Amino acid sequence: MASTSSKARLEIRQAKLKDVRAIGDLVRRAYAELPAYTQGEIRGQINNYPEGCFVAKLDGKLVGYCATMRLDEDVALSDHSWDEVTGNGFGARHDPTGDWLYGYEMCVDPKVRGTRLGRRLYEERRALAERLDLKGIVFGGRMPGLARAMRRKNNRAEGPEDYLQKVIDTKIHDPVLRFQLANGFEPHGILENYLPEDKASRAYAVRMIWRNPYVDVDSPPKHRMPRNVEGVRIATCQLQARAVADFDEFMRQIEYFVDVAADYESDFIVFPEMFTLMLLSAEGREQSPLEAIETLSEFTPKIRAALSEMALSYNINIIGGSHPTRMPDGDIHNVAIVCLRDGSVHSQEKIHPTPNEAYWWNIKGGDSIDAIPTDCGPIGVLICYDSEFPELARRLVDEGARIIFVPFCTDSRQGYMRVRYCAQARAIENQCYVVLSGNVGNLPNVANMDIQYAQSCILTPCDFPFARDGIAAEASENVETLTISDVNLADLSWARAEGTVQNLADRRFDLYRIEWDKRVGNITDPFGEDHDSSISRPLGPPHGGG
């Protein structure tokens, strides 16, 4: 008789970005009474420590998820809230040299509870801690029966400590705490105001600890960040405005630089903001600002298709500067088209139009800012003026971005220096690379390309692994050129963990936080929301001028 076999029904593996939407749906099913994650938060959890995030799939459906990060003992065993310790849900406080594994999310689909999926996910955590020689695992355990137990007349719990003791003595049944105790975790005190939204636990949690039996408590291993090499080659194109006869001639100019960057085996090439404005030179007459934007927006499908084809053909990731794009609701947005060499196409809208953009071109601001996954890790795009708003870069870095691209278009040195100084600040405060690309030259009969000023550059944090002045490379001022430099992403990891200053790790989450609209990162049609049309007339002629 022939032997038969069937496919495994259960799969437990490391979480991937393709799981983000399913994870969000699972958490909503499992914790209907608690606020849901945004997709941006889940992306951050996975990007910041992919080795610590696991999913369980049963018969092809995602039914379990757990998220962990590494923390130093002083943080992991201190009194804290969930928001503080997780960096507002992004897992952004992950410390690659931390000696404890901290669990901050665990959920199983209510329909499959009883299948021991929770135990299997706990085993994955334990195996990770043992493999890395960490001291153990710690987390804040919910007490979902506390509020009810404190209202009882019989067998009443007088408070969280009394409730915990009654659970240990089996006088009160709490399935969550009993599960954790059964899995070898021991309670070590109560955390107050841990999760204010958790009304069933009255915002309390039990600090639960599992100690790794394979680590000598008297001389635990010291974890250091290795000085590895994770090289990425970046090309920034300082583009000369020139008259073109038609769309094809324009694209030949762009393809020339893509070809050169690819010859140098660059991983990325970035073009300037509004780099498509030279298409207006083919119109034969100077158009009004509104006419010009309308004309440009009609090229959007052709530009997306052409850049995507180049990215595939030349095996390079293209940050397509920015281009005016008409949205489904009829508004014009300033949008960066990001075409990756795997064939995928992403968009990032400019969140803050400048006063000139809003007044002369009637450009509206976008609604969402998110990291973009690439084969070199997550990246972010901040179009010109957006780089002058530090909370945007911080969100991208919380989601895991290590390179932020800043296409810009400025007409004066003052405008350029605003972008340059702010971009350098973003690199320092977020311990990331920031890459600027701007236009140079001028075009007759194109009102918005009358004068340009740019000095494109690749900026770094200021610490020992990086260039002395925080500049990996920069172009000569106002000259068309391609500037190429290698950067080491592993240097960022080292600086964040062991650098002279550690801006990301040293944030005071107990004092302040950035509260994002929960729609950000979850928008399926991000082109809505009305904007104030009562915009005062700015000084000067129509110009982007970040």
Automatic annotation (TrEMBL):
InterPro entries in UniProt: Acyl_CoA_acyltransferase, C-N_Hydrolase, C-N_Hydrolase_sf, GNAT_dom
Sequence ranges assigned to domain N-acetyltransferase in this UniProt record: 10-213
Keyword Hydrolase attached: yes
Keyword Hydrolase among UniProt keywords: yes
CDD domains linked to this entry: NAT_SF, nitrilase_Rim1_like
Domain CN hydrolase: 232-489
Region spans: Disordered: 525-546
Keywords from the UniProt entry: Hydrolase
MF term (GO), any: acyltransferase activity, transferring groups other than amino-acyl groups
Domain of life according to the entry: Bacteria
Stored Gene3D superfamilies: 3.40.630.30, Carbon-nitrogen hydrolase (3.60.110.10)
Pfam families named among the record's database cross-references: Acetyltransf_1, CN_hydrolase
Transmembrane intervals: none
Protein name: Carbon-nitrogen hydrolase
Organism the protein comes from: Erythrobacter litoralis
